[in-house]
UniProtKB/TrEMBL annotation:
<dbReference type="GO" id="GO:0071555">
    <property type="term" value="P:cell wall organization"/>
</dbReference>
<dbReference type="Pfam" id="PF01225">
    <property type="entry name" value="Mur_ligase"/>
</dbReference>
<dbReference type="InterPro" id="IPR000713">
    <property type="entry name" value="Mur_ligase_N"/>
</dbReference>
<feature type="domain" description="Mur ligase N-terminal catalytic">
    <location>
        <begin position="27"/>
        <end position="73"/>
    </location>
</feature>
<keyword id="KW-0963">Cytoplasm</keyword>
<dbReference type="GO" id="GO:0005737">
    <property type="term" value="C:cytoplasm"/>
</dbReference>
<comment type="function">
    <text>Involved in cell wall formation. Catalyzes the final step in the synthesis of UDP-N-acetylmuramoyl-pentapeptide, the precursor of murein.</text>
</comment>
<dbReference type="InterPro" id="IPR035911">
    <property type="entry name" value="MurE/MurF_N"/>
</dbReference>
<dbReference type="InterPro" id="IPR051046">
    <property type="entry name" value="MurCDEF_CellWall_CoF430Synth"/>
</dbReference>
<keyword id="KW-0961">Cell wall biogenesis/degradation</keyword>
<keyword id="KW-0436">Ligase</keyword>
<dbReference type="GO" id="GO:0009252">
    <property type="term" value="P:peptidoglycan biosynthetic process"/>
</dbReference>
<dbReference type="InterPro" id="IPR013221">
    <property type="entry name" value="Mur_ligase_cen"/>
</dbReference>
<dbReference type="GO" id="GO:0047480">
    <property type="term" value="F:UDP-N-acetylmuramoyl-tripeptide-D-alanyl-D-alanine ligase activity"/>
</dbReference>
<keyword id="KW-0547">Nucleotide-binding</keyword>
<keyword id="KW-0573">Peptidoglycan synthesis</keyword>
<dbReference type="InterPro" id="IPR004101">
    <property type="entry name" value="Mur_ligase_C"/>
</dbReference>
């Protein structure tokens, strides 16, 4: 029988809430009533469009052990198991704080302008070789996701990894003080989410907030190649952090990338780790995966672990759908390769994706087809940032370019006449155009910010596959 994650008494002590109805034990914590599994505690968060309190009855019917609420919803049975608090989000954070207080796990926190989710996934895979490991799921890295992830931390975990994200100053500070990591990895600092900052130095300051939650004796893990390294190291010194573990291609680092090479099976990495030469394979494709992997090795060093065993696990970590996952779509006349980068986009991330796109060979008679959507949250620098992609686009040697969104006008003007096949304001207007243009052997890269909604284009391409089956990282899965 699985041990309870939260007993009612423990949850009451953690939140200071009032228990109502029958007793309960919870084996998990969720905030989406559609994701409830038997034994979960459902946190009924209020939102701009929907209020979780309206779905408490549905959650309990689906098997939730109890609901965390700030008011009693109408229509519930008298003995419905509830935990009444003043504020549900504050109650969720209180559960996270209590979970952290009782945990003996060694904890790593990860942030950065790009690469943080992939680094988190690699780090979780590596740490699993040393003991039971938990990690924040998907993109749960904000003021809701981080407390939720922490509230799910089991007492038996030996290691845990939490991704912390932001697009404003002062967002990471409360999260890192909640997580209290033993090692804090900053993958890099780039002009991403720049619309809320006056310059890259302010972005660096916001990323450096992660260092404020470090446990005594904890270590900062910093990318020495990044232009903001000195500023980040200065923050560490100001905070009295005595250990900085560095990574990059510079000779004066703790973990140095020596070489990398990618093919369809992943990326082979050669590195020098604390004076020892090591090699490993990452399932993800591209040099950016190699660079992120040495940050993972540096984080293992920061946690006082021998990196060699953990790095061997990275061969099983590849890009997720929407974040660079490569998909083989079986068309009637042969396969097509889709590089699905539809989840997000920023100037450095687009350049990294274009490098992978350039290295991915089309099949016989195939072409390289590029579909790019607007990059969001770039502020006044948006036109220059989009225009500045032209050199990288040309270096990738696309046979056809399709663009989505008003910001992409700047790139369209910067590219040679005739290279841009179509440019639409909305992705929905381009989906059928792209789907009608592709052919067996083609390699298609689809990338854009989440707000640009590139997913309809991916969906239209997937609909071409017969019989709705496609291969992801070498595994054949059902479509849909």
């Amino acid at each position: 029988m699985t041990a309870a994650l939260w007993t009612r008494d423990d949850a009451v002590r953690a939140t200071g809430g009032q228990p109502l109805g029958r007793g309960w034990n919870a084996s998990g914590v969720v905030i989406d009533s559609r994701a409830v599994r038997a034994g979960d505690l459902f946190a009924a968060l209020p939102g701009e469009r929907v209020d979780g309190h309206d779905f408490v009855a549905q959650a309990l019917k689906a098997g939730a052990a109890a609901a965390l609420v700030s008011r009693r919803p109408d229509g519930l049975a008298e003995d419905a198991p509830l935990l009444l608090v003043d504020d549900v989000l504050a109650g969720l954070a209180a559960l996270g704080r209590a979970a952290r207080a009782r945990s003996t796990a060694r904890i790593a926190a990860v942030t950065g302008s790009v690469g943080k989710t992939g680094s988190k996934e690699m780090l979780a895979a590596a740490l699993a070789g040393y003991g039971p490991t938990q990690a924040s799921q998907g993109n749960l890295n904000n003021h809701i996701g981080a407390p939720l992830s922490l509230a799910r931390l089991t007492p038996s975990a030996a290691y845990a990894v939490f991704e912390l994200g932001m697009n404003h100053p002062d967002e990471i500070r409360p999260l890192t003080r909640l997580v209290r990591p033993h090692a804090a990895l900053i993958t890099n600092v780039e002009m991403v989410h720049a619309g809320f900052f006056t310059g890259i130095e302010q972005i660096a300051d916001a990323k450096a907030e992660i260092l404020e939650g470090l446990e005594p004796g904890g270590a900062a893990v910093l990318n020495r190649d990044n232009g903001q390294y000195g500023r980040l190291a200065g923050h560490a010194a100001r905070l009295g952090i005595g250990r900085i573990v560095t990574f990059g291609t510079d000779t004066a680092v703790d973990v140095r990338l020596l070489d990398s090479a990618s093919d369809a099976g992943g990326t082979r990495v050669e590195a020098e780790v604390a004076g020892r030469r090591l090699s490993w394979t990452v399932g993800g494709i591209g040099r950016h995966w190699a660079l992120n992997s040495i940050g993972v090795a540096a984080t293992l060093l920061a946690l006082e672990l021998d990196p060699a065993p953990g790095m061997a696990a990275l061969a099983g970590v590849s890009a997720m759908r929407g974040r660079g996952g490569q998909v083989r779509l079986d068309l009637p006349g042969g396969p097509l390769t889709l590089i699905d980068e539809s989840y997000n986009a920023s100037p450095p991330a687009v350049r990294a994706a274009l490098a992978v796109f350039a290295e991915t060979r089309p099949g016989p008679g195939g072409r390289r087809i590029l579909v790019l959507g607007d990059m969001r949250e770039l502020g006044a620098g948006a036109p220059a940032a989009h225009r500045g992609l032209a050199e990288a686009v040309l270096a990738a040697r696309p046979d056809a370019v399709y663009l989505v969104g008003p910001e992409m006008r700047a790139l369209a003007v910067a590219l040679p006449a005739g290279l841009v096949t179509a440019h639409t304001e909305r992705s929905e207007d381009l989906a059928t155009v792209v789907a009608g243009a592709v052919a067996p052997g083609d390699v298609v890269l689809v990338k854009g910010s989440l707000g640009t909604r590139m997913k309809p284009i991916v969906t239209a391409l997937e609909a071409l596959a017969t019989p709705t089956r496609f291969a992801v990282a070498g595994r054949v899965v059902n479509g849909g």
